[in-house]
Specification:
Largest sheet of chain B: 7 strands, mixed
Radius of gyration of chain B: 14 Å
Oligomer: heterodimer
Shape of chain A: globular
Structural class of chain A: mainly beta
Number of strands of chain A: 12
Helix content of chain B: under 10%
Number of strands of chain B: 11
Strand content of chain B: over 45%
Order of helices and strands of chain A: EEEEEEEEEEEE
Largest sheet of chain A: 6 strands, mixed
Distance between the termini of chain A: 41 Å
Largest interface: A-B, 24 and 26 residues
Structural class of chain B: mainly beta
Radius of gyration of chain A: 14 Å
Chain lengths: 114, 117
């Protein structure tokens, strides 16, 4: 079945450091790919998405490019802030009966220190 | 606009006791999902509703778990009896009716953290 493997943490960075969180996937067909973020005490929020190969999703300074050849969707940010401290989940969609079934990776906890 | 509402936020029970979780989706969202998130893991789908119909419950442990979505709005997830391994965060999500071929975003509630002692 479809699956997502992502870099496991936890990871601690200093403010303004460069961030990369690796994500690779296994899927039949052509899934859409997502990064979700979970801030402390809050629900999961969609951070960015890409629906086809070579698409780049971006939001809040984060970027990820759908790479079909390497089945990857790595998340990057050039300069992290303390407010980026959260758990990040890579996910793919498995469209079933017209609605989206999400398959998540295990998540990676990021702590950014001032 | 209010988001997905879940209650309670936290629940501690002894094993073999029953427990129920409630979810109120975003107004107008016809699809509702229940996920379970174990510690250190990503969420895993338990059941998906289209209006009041459960269209995917293949991952729901039916010997002890049940769910309902009467009138196609609010939903309740129940565990009876609870086991130690049921300790997890139970997430509810909803999504609006699909329009065209675009991705149908799921909006998540804050979850209910269940601890079974």
């Amino acid at each position: 079945g479809n699956s997502v493997t992502q870099m496991e943490g936890p990871v601690t960075l200093s403010e303004e450091a460069f961030l990369t969180i690796n994500c690779t996937y296994t899927a039949t067909g052509y899934p859409s790919l997502f990064w979700y973020v979970q801030y402390p005490g809050e629900g999961l929020q969609l951070l960015l998405k890409a629906t086809k190969a070579d698409d780049k999703g971006s939001n809040k300074g984060f970027e990820a490019t759908y790479r079909k050849e390497t089945t990857s969707f790595h998340l990057e940010k050039g300069s992290v802030q303390v407010s980026d401290s959260a758990v990040y989940f890579c996910a793919l969609s498995d469209r079933v009966g017209g609605s989206e079934k999400l398959v998540f990776g295990k998540g990676m906890k990021l702590t950014v220190n001032p | 606009e209010a988001g997905v509402v879940q209650s309670p936020r936290y629940k501690i029970i002894e094993k073999k006791q029953p427990v129920a979780f409630w979810c109120n989706p975003i107004s107008g969202h016809n699809t509702l999902y229940w996920y379970r998130q174990n510690l250190g893991q990503g969420p895993e789908l338990l059941i998906r509703y289209e209006n009041e119909e459960a269209v995917d419950d293949s991952q729901l442990p039916k010997d002890r778990f049940s769910a309902e979505r009467l009138k196609g709005v609010d939903s309740t997830l129940k565990i009876q009896p609870a086991e130690l391994g049921d300790s997890a965060v139970y997430l509810c999500a909803s999504s609006p009716p699909r329009t065209g071929g675009s991705y149908n975003e799921q909006f998540f509630g804050p979850g209910t953290r269940l601890t079974v002692l």
